[in-house]
Amino acid sequence: MDRELILDVRDVSYRYAGAGADALAGVSLAARAGEVHAVLGPNGSGKTTLVRVALGVLAASTGGSAILGRPASAWSRRELARLVGVVTQREENLFPQRVRETVLLGRYARLSLWGAERPEDRAAVTRALERCDVLPLADRWIWALSGGEYQRVRLARALAQEPRLLVLDEPTASLDVRHEMELFQLVRALADRDGLAVVLITHHVNLAARFADRVLLLSGGRPAGHGTPGDVLTRETVERVFAWPVSIAPFEGRPQVIPLRKDPS
Amino acid sequence: MKWLGLGLVAVAAFLGAVVLGPAHVPLAGLAASDIVRTLRLPRALLAFLVGGSLALSGAGLQALVRNPLADPFLLGLSGGAGLGAVVAIALHLASPWALPLAAFVGALGATALVYRLGLVGGAELDPRVLILAGVAVGAFAAAVTTAIVSLSDAAELRNTFLWLWGGLSGASWDTVLLLGVYLPLPLAVLFAAARPLDLLALGEEPARHLGADVEPLKRRVFLAASLLTAACVAVSGVIGFVGLVVPHAMRTLWGHRHRPLLPAAFLGGGALLALSDTVARVAVAPRELPVGIVTALVGVPVFALLLRRWTAN
In terms of residue numbers, what domain contains B241? Predict the structure, then answer.
C-alpha cells in the first residue's frame, strides 16, 4: 500500500519583491508519511524559502504546494499548526520560561480561545517530552539548557502539536557530534515508528545521506538533484553545487562526501 | 494566594487614595463628604483605570515588539498622544469627548515614525534601535508640546506640567465616564490576545507555525495599546514608567504567560498609580506634584536595573 502523501510541492517558483532573480525556480518535493527528506544546498540556495512557500507563508509565483491534498494557502495558520510542526532556525527567549511551559505552547492551535489546558493537552506535552528524552528537564528554565537539550525541547514543542509533518530548519547547527547524532536518530525514529513525514534542512551532507530517504539538492534556487542519496550525491553534482573538489566514499551503502584539499595557487 | 495578595494591595491603594488627602475627612464622615464624593472618589477611580491601562498596554507592547524595555512612554506613544491632544486643544478642534481620538491620531503618528526608524538596519525590526527611536520621538513630541502650550492662549493648556508629567487633578465623574466609554473595547482586545502573545514572544516565524495569525494579531494589539494609551493621555497627560515597571514586577510573580499576566498587570498598574497619586497629593500638601514625577522617581531606577540585566544577557 502506498503511504499517505502529506506534503506535495509542485514546480514552485518564488521571487522576493525587488529581487533581480528567482529565489526558487521549478522546485518539487513530495513527502509521504514515514519518509525523511533532506534539503541540501549552499547558503542562500533557497532552502528556507522553500519551506516558507511549502507551508503557505509565502505565496508561490508559479506552481503550488498542497498539504493533505489541500492548497497550503487554503489552510488557516491554526489548522495548519495541527498538521505541521516546525522547528525554525532561530527563536527568541525574552522572558524566562520553563521547559514544560514552552512545550505547552505547542498546544495553542488545539485550545479554544478561552478554554484552559485540558488533561489531554498535559498528557500530549508529557508524551512529547518523553519522546525527546527531556522529561527530566521539564521544570528547568530554558536559559539553563545546553544547546543540544534546547533543540530537543524545541522539537518536543513541535511534537506537542501532534503533527503529521515535521519541518526542521538546520536543527543541528552548532551542536557537537553526540548531540547531532542523537537528533538525527530521533528524527529517523519519528519517521519510522510514529509515521511522521519529515523535511529536514541541513548543512550536514553526510548525515543527510545516512539518515534521509530522499535528498533534494538546491543550487541558486533550482533543483540540482533530487532522489535517493546514492543518485544525487555523485562527485560531479556535489562539486558543481558546492564549488569544491570532493571524493565520494560509500559507508553502510550510503555515499559520504569527503572534501578534498585544494592545491594552494 | 498571589491573587488574594494583589487584590488586597489594589483595594488598599484605592482606599488609601479615598481616605488620605490634604483636607482631613473623618472616617465616619467619608460617605457623606463632598470632598470624597466629587473629588477623591472619581480621582481614585481615574488613577486606577489609567494606571491599569498603561500597565496593560506596556505588557502587550513588550510582547509585540519583543523588547522587555518597551512601554507606551519609552516607545513615544504617550508623547505622540500628548502632542495630538495639545494640538487639538490649542486649535479648539476637540471637545473633551473627541480628545482621546486626537490623542489616538498622535499616538499612531508617533508609533509609525518610531517603527520606521526601528527598521533603519533593514527589513528586520531591531528592538534596541526601536527604543532609541521611541525615546527620540518622545523627546521631540515633548518639545513641540511645550512650545505649543507656551504659545497658546487656550485656557485648558495653562498647565505645561500637566501634559508633560501627567496629573490627575482634572479628574471628575465626566472623565471617569469618558474612560468608561473608551477603555472596554481595547481592554477586551488585549485580554483576548493573551494566548497568541505568548507565541509572539518567540518571534514572528515560530508564532506563525504554532498557529498564530501574526499580522492581524500585531495590528490588533498595536491599535488597542495605542487607543488605551491615547484615552489615558487625554484625561491625565503623559505618565511614564507605569507600563514598564508593573509588567516586570508581575512577571516575577506570575511568569511570562499572558493569560494571568495581563489581568495582574492591570490590577498592579491601577494600584501603583492610585498610590503614586496619593503620594503626589499628600507629600508636599497643600501643593501637588505631577504624578508622573512620582512614577518616574520609582520607574527610572527600575529601568536602569532592567537595562543592566538585559544587556548582561
Answer: 41-312
What residue type is B245 in one-letter code? V
User: B87 lies in a domain?
Assistant: yes
Nearest to B206 among A84, A88, A109 (CB): A88
- HSE-up of B187 (CA within 13 Å, CB side)? 19
Instruction: Note whether B211 contacts A97, CB cutoff 8 Å.
Output: no
Residue B25 lies inside a defined structural domain of this protein: no
Supply the pTM of this predicted model.
0.88
Cβ neighbours of B199 in A, within 8 Å: 105, 108
Q: How far is CA B242 from the centre of its chain?
A: 6
Interval A89-137: pLDDT, tens: 988 877 778 999 999 999 999 987 667 889 999 999 999 999 999 999 9
Q: Which residue of A has its CA nearest to B198?
A: A105
Per the domain annotation, does B131 fall within a domain? yes
DSSP class of residue A118 equals P
CB contact under 8 A, B196 and A108: yes
User: How far does CA A265 lie from the centroid of its chain?
Assistant: 39
Contact B67 A81 (CB under 8 A): no
Task: Note whether residue B8 is domain-resident.
Answer: no
CATH code of B74's domain: 1.10.3470.10
Place of cell 489531554: A120
Q: Does A16 touch chain B (CB under 8 A)?
A: no
C-alpha torsion sign, points B192, A98, B201, B104? positive
A155 touches B at CB < 8 Å: no
Residue type at position A129: L
Nine-digit cell string for B220: 490588533
Structure ipTM:
0.92
**Nearest chain B CA: its distance from A243 CA (Å):** 30
* Number of compact structural domains in chain B: 1
